[in-house]
Amino acid sequence: MSATEREAAELHEKSRLPEKAELAKYYHQMLAIRRMEEALAKAYALRKFGGFLHLYIGQEAVAVGALATLKPEDYVIATYREHAHAYAKGMTAKSIIAELFGKATGCSQGLGGSMHLFDASKNFLGGYGIVGGHIPLAAGTAFASKYRGDGRVTLCFFGDGSVPQGAFHEGVALAALWRLPVVFICENNLYSMGTPLYRSLSVSDVSQKALAYGMARDRFDGEDVVRVRDRVAEAVRRARNESLPTLIEIRTYRFRGHSMSDAGLYRTKEEVEESKKRDPITFGRELLVRAKMDEKDIVAIEDQVTAEIEEAVKFADESPELAYERLAEFTYKE
Amino acid sequence: MRTVAFREALNEAIAEEMEKDDRIFLMGEEVGHYDGAYKVSKGLLKRFGEKRVIDTPIAEGGFVGVGIGAAMVGLRPIIELMTWNFSFVAADQLINNAAKIRQMSGGQFTLPIVFRGPGGSAHMLAAQHSQSTEALWAHIPGLKVVMPANPKDAKGLLKSAIRDNNPIVFIEGEVLYADQGEIPDGEYTIPLGVAEVKRPGTDITLIGWSKMVKIALATADALAAEGIEAEVVDPRTIRPLDEELLVESVKKTKRCLIIEEGWPFNGVGAEIAYRIGRRCFDDLDAPVERLTGADMPMPYNHHLEQQCIPDVPRAVAAAKKLLYLE
Hints:
Chain A is an alpha/beta fold. Chain A has twelve helices and eight strands. In chain B, helix 3 runs parallel beside helix 4 and helix 8 crosses helix 12.
């Protein structure tokens, strides 16, 4: 790095430090997502709910940083590993945990579960269980925004495992062809389930896929929430102001298995431990310290998060389930 | 009343609804500049412009998904599949997204979207282009399946489908597009889920839909020449199925032949036969019979192809057997 570059980097560093309230908000969100998922893992182990549970632990800065760039009316659509995106879009831990517990107070009334969180009022368009199958839908919501001229942007999240799917290519190709206001965010956590990237893709740089579609691209590491925010903001600006899509590859790492049944035999303990040195939450806390937030204020956030999650678990526990008699009304709209 | 072709009736339905509601758009392969592979969308690009009549590349999984996403956030897409044979590359979108999103979201998102295009065999199109897909789609809760048999039904049912707030599979018999028929002059719709007696009769009920209605009517004519009065009932909508009218007819005639172009195994006719068997057990004078497409991929050879599709002589023979006349 040259002296000028270093200076520029420092200036950039300084320019983002004063936003203490913003940083506190990101820290709160990331920590709440972490604690929420830890509580969910615990409840799962206690068999309070079943099905699949895919944890996002380790990747929190991606969802929080990316969604910090959005307006409430913007759309977000994601995969089955979407608890974080739902929370960062403004959904409550109560409505998320209650959904996983299968309760009527859950965001999808207990009909969707962990993989299908939805909230129309927050413009959170759901989590989807078929890898890559939601990517054309993101092109569709962006198509609708362009059709109406409503200025909204769609953020579409998926993993590196989606990239070999046809639906990824068709969705991305149409978005590029029709110049749709959408940002495709590939959260590259290096493994599609238990298969490392080099065994599922012929290139290691996922963002290269954008080149074939004549689409803007970006690629960076995802442990710093501010970096994620700033780089995604550029793509959101391109979508909103120029109605152009972007493919972003954010390199990240999940500390837990693909799902709860994953013994993790495809990667070494050392690799996982090494990745934990880049824990986005530790980094988020460090940003607050560097922004000169008092330790007691940081601890206050942490206490607040603990209380928030405890209360949400209690709420979910005590909530009722939907009656079978009501189920049929959800199949068709009258 | 005036006489129009089946494809014109569909075109009128789309144009009239698009005129009324600017949330409706038509998207598909060749729907715009080419005026439609089967000319259903003829003139619509000129009339409504490129914003609302959108040509797509050959990417069914992509543009079917685009339609679903657009419907989720309040538009009312009409997605044309050049033929239903191509729907299978978009099957994940139709089955896992279109049919599921309302329920998975606890009713928060509904999908007012029509997927439409030609289905069934035409003439020497061979195995990949001759399929009847209604049994597959009707199997899936969350989808409605509509299959008009004549221009009047085509227009009225398509208008209802466009106004419906659910994902609709609208299958147009590929060989029906040029058929002429009378339609009412003014605005009209035909509700989904309502069957119609296409020809009243007393001796046997013939059930058919889409182009099999024509076979059923011709069969009834042939039977009439021998003094047998067949009643022809067209469900028009496969799902929801108007079970009541079918049952009412069979209770009257006491005999039932279902004529279906699709394959027999798990066919729509199998479902109808079960329902009639259950509801009309004490009324039937013979077991419910089915005449279906042959249980094999469609051959190319003309003579072999014709033998794989229900026709009038075999329908007449099947009906007579039910009447114990042969």
